[in-house]
Amino acid sequence: MKTALIHSDQYGRFDYGPEHPLRMERLGLTWRLMEASGLTTLPHARVLAPDPADEEALARFHTREYLDVLKAVSAGLKVPGAARFGLGYGDNPIFPGVWEVSCLVAGGSLLAAKLVADGEVGRAFHFAGGLHHAMPARASGFCYIDDPVLAILSLRERGWRVAYVDIDAHHGDGVQFAFYRDSGVLTISTHERGDCLFPGTGFVEELGEGPGRGYSVNLPLDPFTDDEVYAQGFEAIVPPLIRAFKPDVVVAQLGIDSHRTDPLTHLALSVQGFALTVKRIVELAPRLVALGGGGYDLPNVARAWTAAWAAMNGIELPAKLPAAVRPELARFGFRDGSLWDPPAEIPADTRRQAQGYCRSQVEAIRRTIFPLHGIA
């Protein structure tokens, strides 16, 4: 299957600020690990740099007023009331070029969707994308423009049925909001439970409205959910719903802030657990548009997204990381030379609690949502 990797060196020009947890360095670090692993010169894969999305494309989801304010503050203008649009808070700082980088990220995700929709490739990965919290008139959770929504809208314009699978530790609230009444988009989000983590949403009871009832699916997870418990929940919910929905394409948000050492979250996945989940998504998807997402421990991001791109190309990577990138990973505190994580010790009581909570949420989904899709 032909594939495409979307990346731009231009992302490195932008900076949320030295105290902000979202470091743009993670994108260059990921690229260099992919490159050292031989994954940027695959014979069946294209590597493309995106153009910025135009304002018309952004306005398919975002209000003109919000876009005007975002453009103005990016240029250094003082806009009274910018805070009403979520701009200027700690999560969503105003920095030079925030408009330009937001347009570039949106352009990358739209390019990935177009390549797949036009049949040029079967799978495309834009790992700078996946900024799933932005709302029509508000920045939120480090996200200014909701590129997953824009990508899905472009696919819906083709008349395609879209399954959106979000494995970020945070609930994909912006995407859920956009398609809450649309039966042509099935959104599935697995995430740390909303009473423990931002954005405070993503409960099983949020199942869609009107014609979209049953097409918003949320699997909240207890803190310290590990690979095995996560896999049980994923397998119980995602494959049956994908098979029943029969999408033309899967759009996947592959946040790796679910990792056990991520500084902002409390789940306990490993890189290998994440990679196995990506493999399952690849197996389930007739076509795939994959986006990045959260991830605030930089070596985890680079290792996980490199493993994800390998999975999209059917490649098994060696466990040992290429020597060329080990010194750079070490600069960010990563001392192990392995792509994979060592085994973790989860206390038995903690694991039982996480497993019990996962089972209760799976049962609630089976009881309330499965019958709406004709699943016994």
The helix/strand series, from N terminus to C terminus, equals: EHEHHHEHEHEEHEHEHHH
Task: Work out the number of β strands.
Answer: 8
Shape: globular
Which spans of ≥5 residues are poorly predicted at pLDDT below 50? none
**What percent strand?**
5-15%
The assigned structural class equals: alpha/beta
* Number of helical regions: 11
**Average pLDDT for all residues:** 97
* Rg, Cα atoms, Å: 19 Å
Largest sheet: 8 strands, parallel
Report how far the terminal alpha carbons are from each other: 34 Å
Helical residue percent? 25-40%
Q: Give, in spatial order, the strands making up the sheet with the most strands.
A: 2-1-3-8-7-4-5-6
Topology, pairings included?
Elements lengths: L2 E4 L18 H12 L8 E4 L6 H4 L5 H11 L23 H20 L5 E4 L20 H10 L5 E5 L6 H6 L6 E8 L23 E6 L5 H19 L3 E5 L17 H14 L3 E4 L6 H15 L13 H6 L16 H21 L8
Parallel strand pairs: 1-2, 1-3, 3-8, 4-5, 4-7, 5-6, 7-8
Helix pairs in contact: 1-9, 4-5, 7-8, 7-11, 8-9
